[in-house]
């Protein structure tokens, strides 16, 4: 057989494997960020493989990567769990998020284009509609909230900064989104809508100060409600 053909087939298999591993990694990221797992919850390779409809190998690789990023913990018995979150750790992550996410929206105020502004505005409008429904769909709210934030962050034109923020969301997602799924006052009072409006106006006016004000108000109001509850240990 032509050795050149063998080399080509080998490369194709590697590309397909890498693509599958990346898809599984992204699916697990979404699972964690969307609060579909809770802090301290134990997981297994088989359970994750069955849920994602794939073999254990790409799941194992994705889990290793997520463990290195602090999003999962590998236990001695080959199981894994979502890291526990204390109030002190949550406060620490909040300070880091205020710094990095605030920096992203400041730069977005100066750099975001028309398409980016349109996307943020449309997501804000959709989120307003959903949160004002008699029975809001929490899955839709979580997805649109995340998309709105990252549409703003992407507008910064700083992909390395956005990647750092994604890592932070892997750690806080199980807390902030589990809170929403539990029927938090954040649904009934909807403070995010006001703060998102300020953020959007800052981006539209090219005002870094206003954009950061809206972002900070959003993070702080959510944190205040989460810390006031009994979901996090001291």
Structural account:
It is a single chain. This protein has 10 helices and 3 strands. By secondary structure, it is mainly alpha-helical. A hairpin with a 5-residue loop joins strand 2 and strand 3. The longest helix is centred in the N-terminal third of the chain and has 31 residues, at 3-33. InterPro entries: GntR_C, TF_FadR/GntR_C, Tscrpt_reg_HTH_GntR, WH-like_DNA-bd_sf, WH_DNA-bd_sf. It comes from Herbaspirillum chlorophenolicum. Residues 18-85 form the HTH gntR-type domain.
Question: Main traits of this protein?
Answer:
234 residues; mainly alpha; three-stranded antiparallel β-sheet; 3 strands
Separate helix tally: 10
- From N to C, what is the helix and strand string? HEHHEEHHHHHHH
Please give the radius of gyration in angstroms: 20 Å
Low-confidence stretches: 1-15
Helix content: over 70%
Distance between the termini: 66 Å
Number of strands: 3
Percentage beta strand: under 5%
Sheet/helix structural class: mainly alpha
Mean pLDDT: 89
Arrangement of strands in the largest sheet? 1-3-2
Biggest sheet architecture: 3 strands, antiparallel
- Molecular shape: globular
């Amino acid at each position: 057989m032509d050795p050149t053909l063998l080399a080509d087939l080998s490369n194709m298999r590697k590309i397909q494997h890498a693509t599958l591993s990346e898809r599984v990694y992204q699916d697990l990221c979404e699972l964690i960020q969307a609060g579909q797992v809770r802090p301290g919850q134990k997981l297994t390779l088989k359970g994750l493989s069955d849920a994602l409809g794939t073999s254990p190998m790409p799941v194992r690789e994705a889990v290793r990567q997520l463990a290195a990023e602090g999003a999962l913990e590998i236990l001695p018995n080959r199981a894994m769990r979502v890291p526990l979150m204390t109030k002190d750790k949550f406060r620490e992550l909040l300070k880091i998020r205020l710094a990095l996410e605030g920096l992203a929206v400041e730069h977005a105020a100066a750099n975001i284009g028309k398409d980016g502004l349109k996307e943020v505005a449309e997501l804000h409008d959709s989120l307003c509609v959903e949160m004002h429904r008699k029975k809001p769909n929490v899955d839709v709210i979580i997805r649109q909230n995340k998309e709105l934030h990252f549409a703003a962050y992407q507008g910064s034109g700083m992909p390395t900064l956005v990647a750092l923020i994604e890592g932070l969301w892997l750690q806080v997602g199980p807390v902030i989104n589990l809170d929403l799924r539990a029927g938090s006052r954040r649904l009934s009072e909807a403070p995010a809508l006001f703060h998102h409006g300020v953020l959007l106006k800052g981006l539209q006016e090219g005002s870094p100060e206003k954009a950061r004000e809206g972002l900070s108000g959003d993070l702080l109001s959510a944190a205040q409600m989460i810390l006031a509850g009994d979901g996090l240990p001291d």
